[in-house]
Specification:
Layout lengths: L1 E7 L5 E9 L3 H18 L13 E5 L2 E3 L3 E7 L2 E2 L4 E4 L5 E3 L3 E2 L3 E6 L5 E6 L7 E6 L7 E7 L2 E8 L1
Parallel strand pairs: 4-14
Antiparallel strand pairs: 1-2, 3-5, 5-12, 6-9, 7-8, 10-11, 10-13, 13-14
């Protein structure tokens, strides 16, 4: 069956498109919905700032410091797995990957290409952790890179 697409313009006046399309039977609509669900689940684990599958992030406060000063390093989204929908089971219900808080996260810093360990931390059940760290007195002025797993943050050090 063919139908003409109709939309409303900004003033609410109907606009008819010259293209026609075939109306899909109910089963084809269901298959289309399942495909959309599956592909949205695959893209749900991309790095983003929100959602169950957000990539791990760290923040450092203050963002600018001096050698000898204490910094707070805070991590978010430190999970193993991704609790977004990853499929549809034989019963028609969505299935999800297991997700748990990361343990033994290595936190380090570098002022050049040499990584120096700070500590190893465990994320809490909500995927967060915090630690305090004092910038070594011998640290040169410039940008320090702090790392925790795959997450990175920088802080500017002045003398």
């Amino acid at each position: 069956m063919l139908a003409t697409a109709e939309t409303l313009n900004r003033t609410g006046t109907p606009m008819f498109h010259s293209k026609t399309f075939t109306k899909l039977p109910a089963r084809a609509k269901a298959v289309t919905a399942i495909v959309a669900l599956l592909t949205s689940g695959l893209s749900g684990c991309a790095a983003s700032s929100s959602g169950a599958c957000a990539a791990p992030e760290i923040t450092v406060t203050p963002a600018s410091s001096v050698a000898g000063e204490m910094l707070t390093i805070h991590g978010e989204h430190f999970f193993t797995g991704c609790a977004d929908v990853i499929g549809v089971g034989s019963d028609g219900n969505s299935t999800k990957e297991e997700q748990s808080a990361m343990q033994g996260i290595d936190v380090s810093w570098s002022a050049d290409d040499t990584q120096t360990p700070i500590s190893s931390v465990d994320a809490s059940v909500d995927g967060t952790w915090s630690l305090s760290w004092t910038v070594p007195e011998s640290t040169p002025s410039g940008t320090l890179t702090l790392s925790a797993g795959t997450a990175r943050a920088t802080v500017t050090i002045t003398r």
